[in-house]
Amino acid sequence: MTKETTQWLRLPPVSLVYFFLKSIQQLVKQGYQMVPSLVAAWVFIEGIRKWVPLLTAAALAVFVLTVILRYLRFSYQVTSVRVQVKQGVLKRSELSLDMDRIQQADIQLPWYLRPFNLRVVRLESAGSKGQEVVLVGLTEQRAVEIQEAVQAVSAQSSGLIESSELAINSVTPSSAADLELRLPLKEVMKIGLMLNPLLIVGLIVSFIFSNSMTRDMMEEWVEHFSGQFEGTLVAVVLLVGVVLGVLLLAVIVSTLFTANTYYNYHLQRFGQRYSYSAGFLSKLTRSFTIRKLQGVVIRQGIIGRILKRFSGELAQAGGVGVKKERFLVPLLTAEQKQYLLADLKIPKDTTWAKVHPWAMTRWLLLPSITIGAFTTIWLCFIAAAALLALNYLGWRKRGWYFDGHWFGTRKGLVGSVERWLPAPKMQNIRWRQGPIQKRLGIGNLRVASASVNYHLRDIREQDALAMQAELIELTRTCNLHWM
Amino acid sequence: MNSKIKLESVNPAYRTFLALHVSITFIFIMGVAAGLFIWAPFFAAETPRLILQCIIASFAVLWLIFVVFWAPRRYRVTHYYVADDYIGFVVGAVWHTEVVVTFNRLQHLEIARGPLERMLKLSRLVLYTAGGSTADLVIPGLTMPQAEQLRDQVLHELCQEELTDEPITTATTKGQADD
């Protein structure tokens, strides 16, 4: 159990590295918007040029001083009920995070702390305005003590204390684990491929074409490159080669990046607590109690389908794009997927109910008419037929499931995304019906959870209203802890 | 929605609020158009007078439709209801929407008033759950005593709520797995 520390503690000096890295990250994130004005000042205010070295040195000094002050003004206190943090240079703040509100406790071993064998503890609170406390440079024993204190409080509040649950380190290999899943290196290498390197290429391309300077540079380079060859064919072949090379590089980079993140991935469950450890350069240990589970997501993209692999997420409070640190199971075979779903008591033989065929008409008329208006009437019909075929494929995958315990939705085109919500954890429900939908006896149902919203478009009115009534009944009569 | 639940109407002043709200939006659009006509000579010179008159006429007709037909109709189809453990809001005739929130999922609630609403002595009851960053249920067109009474009723229900220590979600225990 955690030793009570009623005095305010400082972080060790080595944690300055963390403050530097964090400040650089913030500077890059927020400061790049200043680049155009700095360039403009350089171009238009000639007198400023001679001051640049001095101004740079001054800015650097201010930056270093700010980082040091941020480190010096940071202090924390850990008791068995809460973690408190005082921080800030000009704007001082005092954050108090109750142990029972912490939904996830991570222990990280980043590369810069490896030589000192020190850890980073990252605590994240539940709720839509989730707060985060990061304690850098703690000894392994102290980090584990804090993680244990969080686990003890959440186990007490859920009334689920079990001897195995409060194991000293919940990710040490143990045959006593209720669930265990390991990813060998061969499997870890596939995660990078599944992340779809085309996305990375897309990001590079969108960056190049996002501003005129890089776009002009690129065009100039392509023209110069093509001009070096006599025939167009040779230039085209070489350009295709360059593109393929970039794609291959993206694959290698994304594979190495994910292999570093998920190296030696080991998922375990002791009692009601899931935890995993992974990482090569920086090691991460993450855990959370199932009591806080707000949904389960199982994904399979195009490459995942080819490799016959899935990825999963045990979702907690905080929606997509809001929550930074997610509890991921990056790769699952079909058997492992069933194993995990069964462990969460999600039904395995699911018959997905279909939505109304009217759903296939979405995004059909307007794009086709627009294409027809700008080209020919034939292209309008071809576009309509192509869109209808795509919508049909999407409609075939789209489905929903409800058995009184779990509510699930599935969508996709080539791959698929399955989302599962523990039914009584529903936050609110909305039923919407337009004039055409009313005539067809269909409508849109949105079930909101603390994690994501579940949308069922063009579901039959009869099914939707019956499900709505049952979900409301389940939620209103449920007096168990949902968070 | 349960057919036995009684739907409550909002205050009749909500109709005036809707009409005024729409009118302000239209006045703003017309103001921008008039500004362009007066201060942008290119716009006035290049736009044929007939097209301009048609645009102004259609805006006027649209405004009339909204004020004379839409606002009273919208008021008639705006309702809320309070059941034992949940609250619901129903709106729309052509595009029908119903939102339901159970009391045991409420995070917080507030009474909000804009300048127009203050003028008409109206207010809104806004309810928040953990699902989403914006308000989950907004009941407009309530008088201040109505909104306060509704808020107190919901808070009273929330105070009565008793939670057990057991969680909703649990993982499979070894015995269950063997079954």
Indicate the overall shape of chain A: globular
CATH superfamily of the largest domain in chain B: Pleckstrin-homology domain (PH domain)/Phosphotyrosine-binding domain (PTB)
Quote the CATH topology of the largest domain in chain B: PH-domain like
Largest sheet of chain A: 7 strands, antiparallel
Runs of chain A in which pLDDT lies below 50 for 5 or more consecutive residues are: 160-173
User: Helical content of chain A, roughly?
Assistant: 40-55%
CATH class call of the largest domain in chain A: Mainly Beta
Per CATH, the superfamily of the largest domain in chain A is Pleckstrin-homology domain (PH domain)/Phosphotyrosine-binding domain (PTB)
Strand order of the largest sheet of chain B: 1-2-3-4
Question: Structural class given helices, strands, pairing of chain A?
Answer: alpha+beta
Poorly predicted spans of chain B: none
The largest pleated sheet of chain B is described as:
4 strands, antiparallel
What is the mean predicted local confidence, pLDDT of chain A? 84
The DSSP helix count of chain A reads: 14
The run of helices and strands of chain B is EHHHEEEEHEEHH
Domains of chain B, number = 2
Round the Cα radius of gyration of chain B to an integer and report it. Answer: 24 Å
Greatest interface (CB-CB under 8 A), with counts per chain: A-B, 54 and 41 residues
CATH architecture label of the largest domain in chain A? Roll
Known CATH architecture of the largest domain in chain B: Roll
Number of strands of chain A: 19
